[in-house]
C-alpha cells in the first residue's frame, strides 16, 4: 500500500520568493537587484523607491514569508509529514544561491520549489526558473554536487488558494455600508505585464489573446464571483483589472489600470467597489501601495466607497494546499496515478513547464522545466 505521507524522491521544500528591503539602506540596492538589465525607466525606479520609503524602507514581504514558513512547518508537523522547509529569495537576503548552498551542505539532493507566484507568466514563472539556473551555475562553479530541482505546478485554481480569497471578498463586502453593499462591483486585480508577455504566457499551444496569464486569472475571478453569488444570493458585476504597471509608456501593457477602472465605474454609477488582489499571494508592497494607498486615494477623491479584500498570506488552508501539492507531485514522480485537485474550467496545470513556456525576450537558461540544462 502506498504511504500517504511518502515524499520520495524529495528531501526538502524550498520556498522561493521575490524578496524585499528591510530598511531604508536596502531600498536602492534591492531595486538594483530587481532591475538589473531590465530597462526600467529611472523615473519609475525613483517613484517605486518612494513607495518603499513611505513605509520606512521596509517591505512587508519578508515577514509574510516568515509567517508562511511557520505555517508550512506547523502544517507538515501536524500531519506527520517529514520534510524540511527552506527559504530563499530572488532579489534580497536570504538569497536563493546562499540557501541552495546551505541545502547542499545539509545533504539535500532532491528539492521541490514552491514559488510565491500562483500563475503562469515570464515574471511569475520562467524568471524564477532562470534564477534557479543562475544559482545552480554558481554552485557548479564552486565544484558542488548539484541537487535535482523541480517546481510545484501553478496553484491558482487549488481550493486552498481560491477559498480563502473568496471568503476575503465576502468579508470585504460585509464591511461596506449596507446601502451600497449589494450594488458593489468586484475588481479582481493582478500585476499588469506587457501584452507581449501575456500573449506568450503558458505552454506554446495556448499562446495568443493574453495567453495562460489572463485565462488563469479569469478562471479564478469567475470562481470567486460564483462563490459570492452562491453565499449571498447577489450577482455582483465583476471585471479583471491591472495594477503596478512599469515599463516605457509606448509599450502596451495589460489594461485597464485599477485607478482608471475606479473612475470609469464611478462615472457609470457603481455605488461601491471591492478590490480583490487575486494576482498576489500576500499583502506585499504592490498591495500596500498600489491598492491600499494609491487606489484608495483615488476612490476617496471620487467619493466612491471601496474595500480591499485579503490575500491568502499564511492561511492554514493555503499551507494545507501546499502539503497536498507536494504529496501529489511526489506521487507523480514515483509514477503513481493521482487525481490532481483543481477548481474551475482549466484543470490542473502541467507539472513540468514545456519547452517554449513563458519565453523570455532574450533566451537564458532556466532550471526545473523541460528545457533545463540541469538534470
Ligand atoms: C507578474 C508579477 C508579479 C506577481 C508574481 C510574483 O509575485 O512574482 C510581481 C510581483 C512582485 N513585484 C515586486 C516588486 C517589483 N516588481 C518590479 C517590476 C516588475 N514586476 C513585473 C511583474 C510582476 N511582479 C514586471 C513585468 C515588472 C517590470 C520589469 C521586469 O520585467 O522585471 C519592480 C521594479 C520597479 C517597478 O517597475 O515597479 C519591483 C520593485 C514584488 C515585491 C514587493 C515587495 O517588495 O513587497 C513582488 C512580489
Ligand atoms: Fe513586480
Topology of this structure?
Blueprint (H helix, E strand, L loop, with lengths): L11 E6 L9 H9 L6 H13 L6 H18 L6 E5 L6 H10 L4 E6 L6 H20 L6 E4 L7 H17 L2 H4 L3 E7 L3 H5 L11 H22 L5 E6 L14 H10 L5 E4 L8 H18 L3 E3 L7 H18 L42
Parallel strand pairs: 1-2, 1-3, 3-4, 5-6, 5-7, 7-8
Helix pairs in contact: 3-12, 4-5, 6-9, 6-12, 10-11
Bound molecules: coproporphyrin III (HT9) and fe (ii) ion.
Coproporphyrin III binds next to α1, α2, α5 and α11.
Question: What do these coordinates show?
Answer:
- Belongs to the ferrochelatase family.
- GO terms for molecular function: ferrochelatase activity; metal ion binding.
- It catalyses: Fe-coproporphyrin III + 2 H(+) = coproporphyrin III + Fe(2+).
- It is an enzyme of class 4 (lyase).
- This protein has 375 residues and is α/β, with parallel strands linked by helices.
- It folds into 2 domains: 164 residues, Rossmann fold (3-Layer(aba) Sandwich), CATH 3.40.50; 150 residues, Rossmann fold.
- It contains 12 helices and 8 strands.
- The strands form 2 sheets. The chain has a 4-stranded parallel beta sheet with strand order 2-1-3-4, sandwiched between helices.
- Helix 4 packs across helix 5, helix 6 runs antiparallel to helix 12 and helix 10 packs parallel to helix 11.
- The chain starts with 11 loop residues before the first strand and ends in a 42-residue tail after the last helix.
- The model has no long low-confidence stretch (mean pLDDT 96).
- The site of coproporphyrin III (HT9) has 26 residues, from helix 1, helix 2, helix 5 and helix 11.
- The site of coproporphyrin III has 26 residues, from helix 1, helix 2, helix 5 and helix 11.
